[in-house]
Amino acid sequence: MSNPVLVIGAGVAGMTAAVELADSGIKAILVERKETVGGNALDLYKAFPTDDCFYCFEGNRWRPGIRKCFYRSALIDQPNITLKMNSEIDEISGAPGQFKVKLTKGPEYIHPRKCTMCGLCLEKSKAFHLLSPQCQPQAVVFNPEKTDDGAKQAEEECPTKAINLNAQPVEETIQVSDIIIATGYHELQPINVDEYKYGKYPNIITQLELAKIIDPNSDSGGVLVRPSDGKPAKRVMMVQCVGSRDENYYPYCSKICCIFALKHASILTQERDDVRVSVVYMDIRTYERYERYYRRSRESGVEFLRGRVSLVQPREDDTLDITVYDSLLNKYLKFTVDLFVLSSALEPPEGMDKLIETLGIKSASGFVAAADPASEDEVVIGDHIYACGTALGPAEVPESVTQARAVVSKILQSRK
Ligand SMILES: Cc1cc2nc3c(=O)[nH]c(=O)nc-3n(C[C@H](O)[C@H](O)[C@H](O)COP(=O)(O)OP(=O)(O)OC[C@H]3O[C@@H](n4cnc5c(N)ncnc54)[C@H](O)[C@@H]3O)c2cc1C
Ligand code: SF4
Ligand code: SF4
What's the 87 CA to ligand 2 centre distance in angstroms? Predict the structure, then answer.
């Protein structure tokens, strides 16, 4: 019998690959460093191109009736998938087709199958929390750095005995035939991009942080509020290409930040009362069908300013004065806003360098690169090594899913 396939990363791309392999009768080991699957998509609220809800796991105990699912909920109970959460790859050796992979699973403080999400521990101690109402496995998580007497009490009183505060990491070695890299992206925290003053004032946020605020499951229930005081935000300015197309940070275009900025701008102007949005841009890059987003945003009243933000100044009431050089008008314009939203670069996640080095594969701007850049097989990274989704560079969900399916089809062909 063939060895299973290792999938590294349980975002949309990794989950799709694992589920498609499993449905085709191939065993998959899905390794994820976090305690929930879903990756970045868990935090995105609505999804272009369909504007559907990103929350899509069926069988979700908290939100029944969820109708659509990007990455199929069978994941947890599919017998051909072994899910290894909270796990890191330590070492990869062996030959293509027979890789030996050493990994460490972090301490399992909460047994994912025993936890019924009764909420008792959440009331007892701040050391327990829920990563997302859509988390899978559906279980709370424990942060040992915040442990206290309440946590010990919760361990004793948990009705299903799901808590073990003394849990230890576990090392293991597995043998796999193929490796699929689906490690995704990280949104740059633009602390060092001095001109925008991110990290200095609370009402300067990134697009991912904005997505979390407008999510109906947020603390504000989806109302657009200022992080500084929770008051409604009415005037929003977005700025594009933060850390992208910039030789000081990332020279590449992050490809999808124009589209998600337009998505957020349209949502805010169409769905939130009295919210006005301006977008400061160098170019609006909306490829293929996404030109529609641009047109729709303009029609819905979003204001577009071609130019650069030249000054950000805080005011006493927590609003911000923003000076923009408008290159079409050749004028400096001044705005006062409640929220300043940075469309920050998408960068490789932590640990990519090490993974790329361990596997001896090519990289481009820190993301994984195709073995043969001239070929159309962008998902083939090496002998029995594949990649899909944003591990290959910034991409939207449909592209990530298509690549994951392409990888599975390659593996199926290789096993014929
Ligand atoms: C603000 C914003 C809005 C967006 N809106 C949309 C939208 O509306 N529609 C759309 O189609 N796309 C949207 N996108 C893009 C979308 O987020 C991505 O296309 C999608 O999440 C990519 O999925 P992925 O699986 O490739 O990566 P990720 O979601 O990044 O998942 C990768 C997973 O791999 C894990 N991982 C990383 N390294 C390791 C490792 N070494 N070991 C184990 N696990 C690891 C991570 O923890 C993560 O869970 C948006 C992006 C942003 C930033
Ligand atoms: S008390 Fe136990 S079952 Fe209830 S949420 Fe906490 S870990 Fe889960
Ligand atoms: S997609 Fe748009 S915002 Fe993002 S880097 Fe490219 S041009 Fe800039």
Answer: 22
